[in-house]
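Q: Could you write out the predicted structure for this multi-component system? I'm mainly interested in how the pieces pack against one another.
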Amino acid sequence: MSSHVVFSLLLLLLLLFFSVHSFPYDVSCYIDSGGSTNITDPFNTTWLADRFFSGGSTSVVSEPLHFRYPQEKTLRYFPASSGKKNCYTVPLPNGRYYVRTFTVYDNYDGKSHSPSFDASIEGTVVFSWRSPWQENLARDGAYSDLFSFVKDGEADVCFYSIATDPPVIGSLEIRQIDPLSYDAATVGDNFILVNYGRLSCGSVQWGPGFSNDSDDFGRSWQSDAELRSENTSKIVNSVSTRETISGTNQPPNYFPMKLYQTAVTGNGVLGFELPVDAKLDYLLWFHFAEIDSSVTKTGQRVFDVWVNEKNVSRVDIYSQVGSFAAYSFHYTAHNLSNTVLNVKLLPVVGAPLISGIENYALVPNDISTAPEQVVAMRAMKESLRIPGRMGWNGDPCAPTNWDAWEGVICHPNKGETALVISQIDLGSQGLKGFISDQISLLTDLVSVNLSSNFLEGTLPLGLGQKSLVRLDLSSNQFSGPIPESLTSSSLQLVLLNDNLLEGQVPEELYSVGVHGGAIDLSGNKGLCGVPSLPKCSLFWESGHLSKGGKVAIGLSCFVILCVVLAVAYICYIKRGRYDYDFAPTHDLTSIAAKRNRYQRQKSLMVLEMESQHAKGLPSPYGPH
Ligand SMILES: *[C@@H]1O[C@H](CO)[C@@H](O)[C@H](O)[C@H]1NC(C)=O
Ligand SMILES: *[C@@H]1O[C@H](CO)[C@@H](O)[C@H](O)[C@H]1NC(C)=O
Ligand SMILES: *[C@@H]1O[C@H](CO)[C@@H](O)[C@H](O)[C@H]1NC(C)=O
Ligand SMILES: *[C@@H]1O[C@H](CO)[C@@H](O)[C@H](O)[C@H]1NC(C)=O
Ligand SMILES: *[C@@H]1O[C@H](CO)[C@@H](O)[C@H](O)[C@H]1NC(C)=O
Ligand SMILES: *[C@@H]1O[C@H](CO)[C@@H](O)[C@H](O)[C@H]1NC(C)=O
Ligand SMILES: *[C@@H]1O[C@H](CO)[C@@H](O)[C@H](O)[C@H]1NC(C)=O
């Protein structure tokens, strides 16, 4: 074989490789909320038994036979006992994802009250359900979908209960898609694209979950019939073809060929009315393909596309891409003031024709909690053993239009780039754990109230951020010394009373009281060293041996050694010389014996106390 032939073969192989465009993203996760076994649906999709949720309970719709697929019949709901906020947290590689939820009520709880709740993705509210739902939605359920970036290794889909209504979810699908799709290069990765209509013109609903037709992104496409304007619906014709359409399934959008194989056309204005929510920006994608073989040259079918009475573009499909080829363009409608978005195709030459329209709300990402503070709060949740009813799930502060975790108050940081924790208020909550030393990462903490719980352990060294003004840890079982770090100059109120704290109180802390703040250290048997508390034993200084103490101990060791040596010298040398024994009188020995017994008893008692002490609590004077 000549090298020329080999080269041509290689080129051919390369061409083949690059023209096939197999979809390179294969991460996906299908969760059957409320389901207890893995199931495969009629479209060969495997749904995982319910997982990755933070709480809640499972139930079944009231009329299971009314639903086609097994994953639609079971659901998860989050009653008040699970807390106000609950999440699915799905571990995934960072990237861009298509997320679809199935939400259903169907009177599963027999209360005939469809619930009010919000749903968020990655800390941004995307869906709001308000009671009462439209009757068909309440009975049949509804699919909602969006495109979002995941940047922290997990997709957080959270539900927030309004009043005490339990949020519900029937199923959750997550599929990885091309990060550059839908003009991400221009729009940026700071928006979530929430689907407000994805129409396949002249077709019935199709796509993953609805038919065996594939769509690499998982998009399902609905019929345009219901969204055509009344005035035009009478003169619309559906057209379709089985010819191959070129330019489909191409990166980054991977629009499926089936989309372009059907279309609607009309002898006059073709109009669509898309439902929207006011005040957002909307990203519109228009899809065309010339599938009428009688159009054979430029200028035979020309029309203008208008969005909300604005002329957006003149379209001549043939002049753009020729026949049987996909042509798409997109347009952003800003700051809508109406709840209907009008799309009109006005004929210039021949009849207008369109294959599909997509409409996405551009929802800007809400700001979320600073990542290191999320880490700290998760550690606090763990160490304080926060009960499930408090709903410490998902992001501690975000979304901004929900309350933060119960007992937590947040505010934006200086640059307004992230939310930070400013207050923790968990007095009298029956908490039984300890304070994680990760609390030192909460650098904007102003106020901490953990009073009247059953918290124990030592106070972490990191407690005492510069920002800290109020600290109430009273009536717990905290032990050990007060950390030196607790000397923030902003402290105004320090309540450490009724604990088991020990050792010398740092002088700077005591000066809080001197400088007009309030401080209460009472009810700690082991604290010492400032006015109103007992004097510390000479050598203790906030739980450590003082410098003086160390010198004193060093000195006494030296002195004792000298004495021992001297006595040994006297006994050994002098005895050799004078050879007599020294013996105390009888009385003296018995007193010495009595004293020894007493000493023995006392030291046994002390030992016993100390060993019990050692069981319950770490030694406060151990190495730090
Ligand atoms: C369902 O499938 C997942 C992943 O394949 C597996 O880890 C899990 O054990 C299965 N669960 C059940 C209940 O079969
Ligand atoms: C269903 O999926 C499995 C792998 O997930 C595959 O092996 C099988 O061929 C598929 N069946 C059909 C009918 O597509
Ligand atoms: C989808 O394809 C599978 C296997 O080819 C078939 O069994 C099933 O009936 C099809 N489902 C629908 C809704 O067409
Ligand atoms: C539909 O027609 C009516 C009267 O024929 C007109 O008032 C209305 O503006 C038209 N609507 C649209 C969307 O063109
Ligand atoms: C609509 O805008 C296009 C350019 O985008 C222009 O060519 C066309 O003439 C305009 N149509 C009308 C009716 O003004
Ligand atoms: C959006 O429109 C409203 C009135 O409809 C106006 O008050 C507001 O300034 C507009 N915002 C932007 C960003 O254009
Ligand atoms: C801390 O919370 C308790 C309620 O559990 C309250 O009684 C107390 O006054 C609070 N402390 C401060 C300093 O506000």
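A: Regarding packing and overall arrangement: The first strand starts at residue 28 and ends at 32.
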